[in-house]
Amino acid sequence: MKRRGFPAAARKALRNDQLRGNLALATGTIRERRAKAVDERPDWEELREAGRTLKLRVLRHLDSYLVQFERAVEAAGGHVHWARDDVEAGSVVARLVAEAGATEVVKVKSMTTDEIGLSEQLAASGIEVVETDLAELICQLAGDPPSHILVPAIHKNRTEIRDLFRRTIGAPDLSDEPRELAEAARLHLRRKFLSARVAVSGANFGVAETGSVCVVESEGNGRFCTTLPQTLITVMGIEKLVPSVEDLEVFFQLLPRSSTGERMNPYTSLWTGVTPGDGPQEFHVVLLDNGRTSVLADEVGRQTLACIRCSACLNVCPVYIRTGGHAYGSVYPGPIGAILTPQLSGVGGDASSLPYASSLCGACYEVCPVKIDIPRVLVHLRSRIVAEKAGGAGERIAMRVLARAFADEHRYERAQKLGRAAGRPFARKGAISHLPLLGAWTDARDLRPVARQTFREWWRTR
Amino acid sequence: MVANAMSSARDEILAHIRAALRDVPPDERPEDVSVPRDYLEQEPDATVERFVERVTDYGASVRTVAAAELASAVGEACREADVARIVVPRDVPAEWVPPSIEALVDAPLAAVELDRIGAALTGCALAIADTGTIVFDGGAYQGRRLLTLVPDVHLCVVREEQVVDGVPAAIRRIAADVRTARRPVTFVSGPSATSDIEFSRVEGVHGPRRLALIVVRS
Lengths: 462, 218
Hints:
The complex is a heterodimer of chains A (462) and B (218). Chain A is α/β, with parallel strands linked by helices. Chain A is built from 22 helices and twelve strands. In chain A, a hairpin with a 4-residue loop joins strand 5 (205-207) and strand 6. Helices cover 28% and strands 22% of the residues of chain B. In chain B, strand 5 and strand 6 form a beta hairpin. Classes of the chains: A alpha/beta (462), B alpha/beta (218). The interface between A and B is large, with 99 and 77 residues.
């Protein structure tokens, strides 16, 4: 793990002053707004507890809720498909687009479709994907991956966006006023919406009881995608269900306040199958596993699947605020990404540096609208990674020796003396910045050498 | 072939879920996982005044009028938005539209035609005071979803008695529509907006840039 994965990427991000400035400004604004919107609700803690337990109920009975959802969608005139992984989901969507006779689709921003690289998969099948969310459009035009769940272009400021639009979709005299930039995107995308025959969306919630699907958004591109085209294909993670329509009252209050710090987001669409004469007449839901069932199997990690993708944990995280989303090298950045990504892709895989990208300060847990105990899951994943790692013997032996030393007063004092002597050759200017074999401990922080006189020695001579 | 692959994906995912949930006792029912509903089911003091205040916060304009003044308020809102031609759902009463305004009926019109019309005039299913939200369920005076989306201005008539206090009250009212009639539901809170550029709020991206409400006193 040394100097690979998150630490190396973070080091690079930390040197980018522009990025750090953009991040500090944007996350600071959202944090303030969220705090105000949350303070307004005297029953916030009760809402969180209801949200947490509703998700727990769904997860503990996921199989029956999924079967119920499937039956309800079909009864309402929709079609349900199941996909074990990203490739299977991609080929199902590509087939449905081809069956609709389309070569271009409009797409509303969704974390799930990003997770499976749907746009790239469709492009490989000769289908052009048009991102319709302003920030996703910015990322698509710039060739950048998104860097925040809610504000994917958070790493770009207005001047950078103006220059990008001038080169791609806008007039050469476009100003850097956010209003003018948004107008340029509106004109560009309006033509796409009016001609699109197929749309692809994600889902914020699925209602098991009625087969309804819900998309929560701000710009109206979600409404366009879910009402204008003839065919709508929704890719939904299997964990997105809530039991009944009434349960939405909890999440409709938790999500906007946590996410954008608004009392309510501008647009929430809820549809059930096909409505004659109104909206798409052909509706498909693709239920996606892609690692979720293995997250479900871990009793501590399971709560990760309760996430409603609000991104509040990103905006309060001292690590995310400084490094930004790209350093995580994963579609899901920040604290939630640090626990979700390694579980989805397999603990011990590429993402195994992510559970260490945290100071365990607990700010993420405090703001989580469904009370996911992120610090607990982080520590749990660290122990799973250590247990699964064949190497790392140096650390394991050191911990065993340390445990023996701490267990006995005389051994402890002897160890301090030994540490004082052993540490001296590595100390520079009163700090140890590198220790052989234990590099992971000193890569990201300096160690103070053992003091010339310990507290216990001083106590005796007092 | 395809049907086989699909059913096996389904069976495999469901089997994985059941294996993952081995710690859940087999006789546990979903209702056994208790969900405490201690949050507020009612919003004290959430009145029509609160609704007007909150919807104004989003940058929508609001006119509160008596029933007899409805048409002239519509005319005023059209003048303010510089609109002379509007589209209305089939069931909107002729009395809502002032003589100065040309109203086309959505018979239905094609989306490209809607794109050339300045504004849409509709009613709503209900409104939420606490969050300044208007809710549509395709019922009376609301028309289909495209109508309130494509034109640049949305004029919406809210009758005072349609205002409920909070989100739970609103969901309870629409639950039956969703459950039995399977009607599509849209919650609208202010004009379309984005905060994607430096998190500074811009009104009007893809949805209507202006939302003008006319609240009719009962």
